[in-house]
Each structure stands twice: as structure tokens, then as C-alpha cells.
Records
---
Amino acid sequence: MKTIARDDYLQQLIDRKHNGLVKNVTGIRRCGKSYLLFTLFKQHLLDSGVPEDHIIEIALDDRANKSLRDPDVCYQYVKNSIKDNGLYYVMLDEVQFMPDFEDVLNGFLHFGNADVYVTGSNSRFLSTDIITEFRGRGDEIRVHPLSFAEYYAAVQGDWTDAWNDYMTFGGLPLVLAQPDDTAKTAYLNHLMDEIYLRDIIERNNIRNEAGFSELVDVLASGIGSLTNPTRLEHTFKSAAKLSISQPTIVKFLGYLEDAFLITKASRYDIKGRRHIGALSKYYFEDIGLRNARLNFRQQEETHIMENIIYNELKLRGYSVDVGIVNLPQRDNGTTSHRQVEVDFVANLGSNRYYIQSAFALPDEDKQAQEKRPLLNIGDSFRKVIIVGGNVRVSHDENGITTMGLKQFLLDRDSLNR
């Protein structure tokens, strides 16, 4: 398999060297965190002249390092490995295997000549807890599965073939190492059932495994659909004949989000400038895992494309909501308002983009349908329609930009073209 460059993430690590904070590399399991830290970043350190004995590596998920999961043993091991006043780089992989790891990492910071990096696969371990415990001394770097641009750089060849593979099998790095589609399917099925879901069930002591499994199926079938715990409860009662309370559904959703398997996009009233909490959308962090969960049965390119666009916006650093616009309409002389959706409202600093995902724009009616919400927003932020395939970037008289999916995915600055 060709070496996969993760240049953006590597640069984030390089930029954060020696900043006095614990660098927390987070993300879904098997997305490449360990490779980034122990291969790419370590090679950068060696190339920069750091002696190898000043790089302390501990893979806590390795059975050989089981004793180092004891916080006191690990602390003493690192302390004993620091033998002079030079700068040492301490790298711990899958730190959630260690109880009380926050105290250990705080202790490393007190050494004065230790630059500390950790990875973990659970957001509670490396977001909520560390922010609380470290009081501003933790620095998170979120790693995602391969973007399409990273994937395409590794596989090359025909763009359409690469896109078809990516939207089917997703962007987990080791998918590229599988020899054929059968092996890719088996790999993803194993990861989803035996690694991700089993880990969530055991970690959270879930007793209603049937209900949890059904929730994952419903979310996988309904990517891009508005839902909430109330709707999900009704779905279980009517379709699956299961009774799952709303509080349990809320907990299950939280477990899936904590494991980085899914991400929630909230609704945002664009003109009212406020979030609307009633309904949300859930997207899968990796589309290949979603497809595997459904045995690759529901391959609707429209919804898959929407999920991939959402993921691309997130990995570019945007906060992403589902936009709502109220359109006036007259019926029998009476004016009322109808809510229409803008697929994504993407914010980064002072920049905002309104984005529609449209698999195809075959005629003027479909074009008008996609443009109507954008035309009624009434502000000057950039408005973009992303169309499936390879479509040249164009701008209409109202300032709406239309671009192809290929241009959007392969050009990091495509939204500003």
C-alpha cells in the first residue's frame, strides 16, 4: 500500500510542539492516530535531530505494556526514562486504557522537560475530562478518516472509480490495504460489529443490546433525515416492535457520539439567528462503516454524498448546522410561512457559507428548488450548490456559486472559488 500522507494533522502537531500543553490526538478507532503520532510525527522528530532515546513511546493497548496501564507504574517508568536535562517527547497511545490518566499527564507536565502527546478513541476521555482536569492545559487535535483528497492521492487513477470506491468503502486507512472488495467488506463488518459496537456495549454496560443495535440500524438508514429521541421512540414501537424510553435513546446516542461513530448537526434558524433544538440530523464519521452496518444494501448516492460533504466540512474545521429559512407563501389571499432547509450552514471564525448538496440539477425546476432557500437568506455570505460529478465552477447573477463534487473535495479552498 502506498504511504498515506496526513500532512494537515502532522503540521498541527508540529505547530504545537513545546507549547506546555498535553497534545490530545482524538478520533474514531483505526482512523490513523497511532500512525500519525508514532510514525509520521516520530520521523519528523528524528529528522529534526531529536535523539531516539529522547522519544518515549508507550502503546497502552498493547498486551506487552499491560503493566504500564497502572498509573503509578507508568509515571515511574517515564520518570526513570528521563535521564538528563534535554527535552523528551512522551507519547502515549490509547491513554483511556489507564485509570486516573489525568493525574499522570499532569505529573508529566511538572517535569519541565517533557513534551507530552497522547491518543484516545473516546471523546469523554480526551475532551470533557481533560478540559476539566487540566484547566486549559490540554490541546486537542481531532483526526478523521481519510478525506477523499487524501484517499485519491493514495490510489490515483480514474476519479469516478475512486469516488465509487470511497462512497462504498469509506476512508479508514487500512481499507486501502485490503486486496479486493470482498476483503474490504469483511474488514468493515468486523470493525463495526466486533471493535466499535462491542467496545461501546462493554464500556457502558449496555444491557439492552437489541435496542442499541436497532438504533444503529435506524441511524444508518436515515442519514440526512431530521429526527430526535421522540421520533426514534415512535419508530421503535411501530416498526421494530421494541419499547425503548427516550432517556435510554438519549444515552445510546451519547455513547455513539462519544465513540466518534456519529456526529449530530443541529437545526439553525438563519434569519432568527438561533438554534432550534427540536430536531437534528446524524451523520456517520465514516461512510464505509455505515454501509457495512446495512450490508451495503442502501447505496443512495444522494444521501451518501450529503454525509461525505458534511464530513469534509468538519475536517476542514467548520462548525456545521442544518439551516432553516421561512419562506412566505400566499394561499387564498392569506400569507403564511413555510420552512425550507439549507443543507449546511458552515462557520469558521468570521466566515460563513450556506451550502446545498444536490446530486443532480437536471432541469430549471430542480435548479430553482435548490436556489430558493439561498435566495431568501438575505445576507452577503457566500452561497454554494455542490453538484455530483465534475462540474465547472460557475456564478449566477444572484451570486450563487455552483461547483462539482470533484472540485469541492479536491480543492481545500474550493468554497472561495
Note: The domain at 7-142 is CATH 3.40.50.300 (Rossmann fold).
---
Amino acid sequence: MDFTEDKNSHVHQFSWMERELKKVSEDKLTDRILILGSGVLECQTAIALAKEGKEVVIIERSDELLPDCLNSPIRAQLMRSLEKWMVTFYLETSIMNSENGQVCLGTKEGFQLYLDIDNIIAPKGYEYF
């Protein structure tokens, strides 16, 4: 399995997110999941987890969801699925801090939001702090 896990903050980093996520046991990914980034694979992962009954939040540093497929027909399909499965997302947002199951998100304008999160999923190499 090609992923790393930070035991303290429950961060899972995947090289090929969709394929590797299936290999992670159910007990490691609990109910409240934060996904970093909003590319096609991240959104597909969010939808799959939401279908399993997980509460999923996506954060994206840029001002666009699915920035890697802005002019593609797949974007509209993924947007509909994200809405259908009630995946929450925040744009222009990044993690400020993560401690004791709570994640502090911050915007460029300086606003902060605290979420109770069990697991964080990020692509390999994603710098989340």
C-alpha cells in the first residue's frame, strides 16, 4: 500500500488516491473526513466516501473547484454528484492548525473556521500546514 499515515493527526496521504483509498480499512477512516484539494481524484474520493455515509469536507486553496478540468464535461457531472451527496467545500481556504480532532481552517481574508475532523486525506506531497 502506497500511503503514509501521521498517527497524531490521522492524516492519510495517497499517491493514487482512488485506488489506494480502497485498500485502507474501514476502521481507519471514520465518519468526519477532510479532503485537501479539489482535483478530479479528490472529488471522486469525496463522493465515494459520502456514498458510504461519511461526512466529507473539501478545502481548496484556489478560487475554483475542480481546477484541473474547468472546460471538461466531467466537471458538471462531478459538481452534480458533490451536491447530491452533500459534500461541503470551502474555496480559498487552507489548514491553519490541527489538534485533538479539531482542524482550524483559514481564508485569505483572515476568517477562521473550526471543524471536528477524524481523518484528513491529501495527495502525496501535499503540504497541508
Note: The two ends are 24 Å apart (CA to CA).
---
Amino acid sequence: MVLGVETWVVAVLGVALFVGAVVQGTVGLGLGLVGAPVTGLVAPELLPEVILWLAMLMALQTMVTEHRGTDWRGLALALPPRVVGTAIGVWVVATAPIEVIGVAVGLMVLLSVLLTVRTVTIPVNRVSLPIAGLVSGVAGTATSIGGPPLAVLYQHHRPYVLRPTLAAYFAIGAALSLVGLGIAGQLDVDTTLLALLLSPVLALGIVVSLPIRRRVPARLIRTGVLTVCAASSLALLVRSLV
């Protein structure tokens, strides 16, 4: 046992988070898309806290190293509604059973996969950004997957803008969600320590992602990730519903 969690569960989480970190270091998001469904399958009681802590830590690293391309004007429109969405998400976590959270995670991932596959193009403006922020606040706090709404808006931007902008949003958004959950008494000390214990796999994933960015087409990586995400989320949906 590690902090009240079976050793094999910690190992599975470590592998999933490593894969998610490699993907996020390469294309800008992926830690939650890979990590959350797997966490929901093997240790649903750790959602959304453990993924939120790790998403914040990884995003902070990207902010420091790639901050020059960040679209702060867009974030200024998306972040205030995120606060409102966070409050709604905290209420969901406080009142909904674990099975409901599992279904929400599965559906959120499947919707994200669908939007990405269809390469939906939505204009980035004063209307779409606040809506994305609100939806992301609810989903990010309740399920730990808050990136897709903003990622859909920015998916056609150049990587040097996409990665740091999403990273800044993830870091600030995850911090808001954790503060909200803490105020509501929904944070657990052991889960926080477990997130810190798993954090080295993020650094390893980032290191591995650097040569992949240069050598492997992003299209191939995205296809593989979407396949894994869809399979994991379907399995999580079946488990949560049954």
C-alpha cells in the first residue's frame, strides 16, 4: 500500500500519467484525457483531485519554459467565467456519487475525442472564450478534464501559441478548482501527497516529448492518443453504469 492506495494501482497511474505527459508535452494537452479515465477505472476515489494537482504542476513547467507565445488577451476573457464554472463544479463533486463522476469523465473524454476528430472550427472571440471558460470550469473541477473547450478554440493556432496558452489556462484553472474544492472540504491530504509522489513521471514525460516533437508527426500521435482515450472512456462508462 502507498498512502492508502494499492501498489499496483500506483504503478498503473504512473504509466498512464507518463503517457499523458508525453502527449501533452508534444501537442499541448493529454494528461487529463489519458490520466482521468484510467484513474476512474482503477481508483475513482482519487478523482478529480490527483489529476488536478498534476495538471497544475505540469502546466506550470510549460508556462515557465514556453511563456512567450501565451495569448493573455484571450485568457483574460476565458478565466473570469471559469471562476463561476468552478463553483458549479465544486457543488457537483460535493453532491454527486462516484459513479456519476465516472460517467461524467467518460462522456467528457468521448465528446473531446469527437470534437477533435471532426476538427471543429470555432472562432476565437469575445463570445466563444467566456463560454469555453464557463464550461471548462464546471468540467475541470468536477472531472479534472477542463482543457478540451479551450483546446477546440485554439487547435488551429501554431504550436508555440497553443502549448503555452493552454498551459497557462490549465495552471490557473486547476489552481482555482483546487482552492474551490479545499474551501468545500473536498481535498484529502493523502491524495495530495500521492500526487506529489507521482509528479516525477511528468518530468520524465516532458523529457521524452522533446525529441518526439521534432521527429514524429503530430497527426500520428493524436490518432493514437484519441484511440486510447476513447477505449479508456468507454470502459469507464461501462464500469460506472453497470
Note: The chain has one domain: 7-241.
